[in-house]
């Protein structure tokens, strides 16, 4: 079955620049040149939230891993953290001196990496909302920056035509990939963390191995590629291009699977949901679209399971598909034996799941608390300022009367 259009969201008043799903797929965030952030509710009859705060175009949005916060970057040079609820309150991060093009949470939700036209990549702590350090070796605008799944590496893409790989701890640039013929619009890590994919204005998508620093795959399109997203299984890649199409690439076969026409005008952004059964796209036509992936469940359900049990790179080293085949078999095999197991194992599993869910919930609550505290701090500062102003005015009035 081919991918199909599931939902269609209208509400932005200018080009959509960025889309991202929350963990539970109940919400979808989008940013737009209209300076607004929209939170769309995937459940029918639930209204959308429009968040106003940025003074200029919103270039990028992302949900925190827990789904309790949304980060956004803007042309107004700031980064904001929002609580995606009715109130839509936010706190502001200021350190960049130009447009912020990219925001990304680390997988533990503790750090945020941002990329800007000021040619730097910056790392922040989420809870203390403090700027930590800058990575500054790019010599042109930085369009995109991402943490590796394990949080040890950062990859960044720039108009200086390079993709740079950084070590987060030593803050050094480990490698520069220079094979792009144009600006690099977007870059991301493969779910395994072993390779990266980059999209460029030279109409290409390139996949590099970050252990050997060599080119693994190269897809030549016929239009500028604006954005890309890996399927959680690591077997597919979806791209958004200026020719208004979305393309799904099969990374195992190294070929184009589907071309989807939905947007009028350039498709600007695209993102898979965290489970991979949906993906969303945005365009300069102001539309946000949600698509059903409709891949054969066997294609990736089992791969996801085996990946969690710690498999190696999905893209085979030697160009053969043997490694993957055995992983998939083992995945299906695992599934069968599990169901035949005694009930005790199942209960244990359920306990583990509920424990994980509780932890997830606590982390989320922590996010919200942190955010609330810093909103209160902001208000307190405002109140203090107002009080000071009142006192100063009173002084002036008294002085005027005396004189």
From TrEMBL:
Which segments carry the WD repeats?
A: 9-50, 51-82, 93-134, 135-176, 177-218, 225-259, 260-292
Please name the source species: Eolophus roseicapilla
Xref: PROSITE patterns: WD_REPEATS_1, WD_REPEATS_2, WD_REPEATS_REGION
The record's listing under Pfam families reads: WD40
SMART domains in the record: WD40
Alphabetically, which GO biological process terms does the record hold?
cilium assembly; microtubule-based process; multicellular organismal-level homeostasis
Q: Which UniProt keywords apply?
A: Coiled coil, Repeat, WD repeat
Domain of life where this protein originates: Eukaryota
Q: Is Coiled coil tagged as a keyword?
A: yes
The record's family statement is:
Belongs to the WD repeat POC1 family.
What does the UniProt record say this protein does?
May play an important role in centriole assembly and/or stability and ciliogenesis.
May I have one GO cellular component term? ciliary basal body
Could you identify this protein by its name? Answer: POC1 centriolar protein homolog A
Q: Does the keyword Signal apply?
A: no
């Amino acid at each position: 079955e081919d991918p199909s259009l599931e939902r269609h969201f209208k509400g932005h008043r200018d080009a959509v620049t960025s889309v991202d799903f929350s963990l539970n797929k109940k919400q979808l965030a989008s940013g737009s040149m209209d300076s607004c952030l929209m939170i769309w509710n995937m459940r029918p009859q639930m209204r959308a939230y429009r968040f106003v705060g940025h003074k200029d175009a919103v270039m990028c949005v992302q949900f925190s891993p827990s789904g309790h916060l949304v980060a956004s970057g803007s042309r107004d040079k700031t980064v904001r953290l929002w609580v995606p609820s009715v109130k839509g309150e936010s706190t502001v991060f200021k350190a960049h001196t130009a447009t912020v093009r990219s925001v990304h949470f680390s997988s533990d939700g503790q750090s945020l990496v941002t990329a800007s036209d000021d040619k730097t990549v910056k790392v922040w702590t989420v809870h203390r909302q403090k700027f930590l350090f800058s990575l500054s070796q790019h010599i042109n605008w930085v369009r995109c920056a991402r943490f590796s799944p394990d949080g040890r590496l950062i990859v960044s893409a720039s108009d200086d035509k390079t993709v740079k790989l950084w070590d987060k701890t030593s803050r050094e640039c480990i490698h520069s990939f220079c094979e792009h013929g144009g600006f690099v619009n977007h870059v991301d890590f493969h779910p395994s963390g072993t390779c990266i994919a980059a999209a460029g204005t030279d109409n290409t998508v390139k996949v590099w191995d970050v252990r050997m620093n060599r080119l693994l795959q190269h897809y030549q399109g016929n239009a500028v590629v604006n954005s890309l997203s890996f399927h959680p299984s690591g077997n597919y890649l979806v791209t958004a291009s200026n020719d208004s199409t979305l393309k799904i690439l099969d990374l195992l076969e190294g070929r184009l699977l589907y071309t989807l026409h939905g947007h009028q005008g350039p498709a600007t952004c695209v993102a898979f949901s965290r489970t991979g059964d949906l993906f969303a796209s945005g365009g300069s036509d102001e539309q946000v679209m949600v698509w059903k992936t409709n891949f054969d469940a066997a294609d990736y359900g089992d791969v996801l399971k085996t990946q969690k049990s710690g498999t190696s790179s999905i893209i085979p080293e030697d160009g053969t598909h043997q490694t993957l085949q055995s992983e998939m078999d083992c995945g299906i095999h695992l599934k069968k034996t599990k169901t035949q197991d005694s009930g005790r194992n199942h209960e244990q599993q359920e306990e583990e799941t509920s424990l994980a869910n509780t932890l997830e919930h606590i982390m989320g609550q922590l996010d919200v608390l942190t955010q609330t505290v810093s909103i209160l701090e902001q208000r307190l500062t405002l109140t203090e300022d107002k009080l000071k102003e009142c006192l100063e005015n009173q002084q002036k009035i008294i002085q005027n009367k005396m004189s």
